[in-house]
Design goal:
about 230 residues; mainly beta; Jelly Rolls; 12-stranded antiparallel β-sheet; two-stranded parallel sheet; 14 strands
C-alpha cells in the first residue's frame, strides 16, 4: 500500500510540473524582432504659398474714377508708418485727378522724420491678400504729381526683402513707367530671391518715402500693370 501511494505521488508531481511548464511557454510567446539601425528616409517639408495664384499679365489696378478708396479688385488703399513719422490714413481720394474736372487721384501725405525707421507707406493689397503671378507682365506704370523722391515697391510671399523702383515726383502730372527689370532688392544680405521668383507671388503694390527727413506729398492716378 505504501508503495502504491509513492507511485501515485510521483505521478501527480509529474503532471503538475508538465502543466506549469506549458503555461509558462504560452505566456512568453515568440520573441520580438530585434531593432535595426537601418535608416528609413522621410520626405522633408518645403514651405510654399498655399493660396491660389491669379495670373495678371496686364490691366488697370486703379484709375480712381469712382473717387473711392478701393482698387478694381475691391481691395482698399491704406497708409501706415513707423511711430517716428506721420501719415494720413485712410489716404484721401481727391479731385482733380490726371484727367482733370471730376476725375480723382489718391493722395499720399505725411512726414518722414530724420530717423524714420521703416518709413511711411501708401499700400494696396493687390488681390486683397491673395498672391498674383506677374511674371508675364513687363512692369508697372502710373501718373503722379507732387514733390520729393519715392519708391514704388511690390511685396511678395517669396521674400521679405522687397523689390523696389526709385522715382522723383514733379509739380506737373508725369507718367512713370517702371519695368520690372529695373526693380532691385533693398539689401543684399537677406531674403535674396530672383526677380521671377518674387513676381510669382506678388501681394501688394505700394509707395514709400525715398529718404528720411522729408515731407510726403504725392498724388497717384491710373496705376496699371503693363
Amino acid at each position: 500500500m505504501k508503495r502504491l501511494m509513492t507511485i501515485l505521488f510521483v505521478f501527480i508531481l509529474v503532471i503538475i510540473v508538465f502543466i506549469l511548464f506549458a503555461c509558462r511557454s504560452r505566456s512568453i510567446g515568440q520573441p520580438a524582432p530585434e531593432p535595426t539601425n537601418t535608416f528609413t528616409p522621410t520626405a522633408t517639408f518645403t514651405p510654399t504659398p498655399t493660396a491660389t495664384v491669379r495670373i495678371i499679365s496686364a490691366g488697370m489696378v486703379d484709375d480712381f474714377a469712382d473717387c473711392e478708396g478701393n482698387n478694381v479688385f475691391n481691395s482698399p488703399w491704406f497708409s501706415y508708418c513707423d511711430s517716428a513719422n506721420t501719415v494720413t490714413n485712410p489716404p484721401p481720394v481727391i479731385t482733380p485727378g490726371y484727367a482733370g474736372g471730376s476725375d480723382c487721384a489718391i493722395k499720399f501725405e505725411g512726414n518722414a522724420a530724420a530717423s524714420c525707421g521703416y518709413g511711411v507707406w501708401l499700400a494696396n493689397a493687390l488681390l486683397a491678400g491673395a498672391p498674383a503671378d506677374l511674371r508675364g507682365a513687363t512692369g508697372i506704370r502710373f501718373q503722379c504729381k507732387g514733390s520729393g523722391s519715392y519708391r514704388l515697391v511690390f511685396l511678395s510671399q517669396a521674400t521679405q526683402n522687397n523689390f523696389q523702383y526709385n522715382f522723383t515726383a514733379s509739380s506737373s502730372w508725369t507718367q512713370i513707367e517702371a519695368p520690372f527689370s529695373s526693380f532691385t532688392q533693398a539689401s543684399s544680405d537677406y531674403g535674396i530671391v530672383t526677380l521671377q521668383q518674387a513676381l510669382n507671388y506678388v501681394t501688394h503694390i505700394d509707395f514709400a518715402n525715398g529718404s528720411c527727413n522729408m515731407t510726403i506729398d504725392l498724388l497717384v492716378d491710373n496705376l496699371e500693370i503693363y
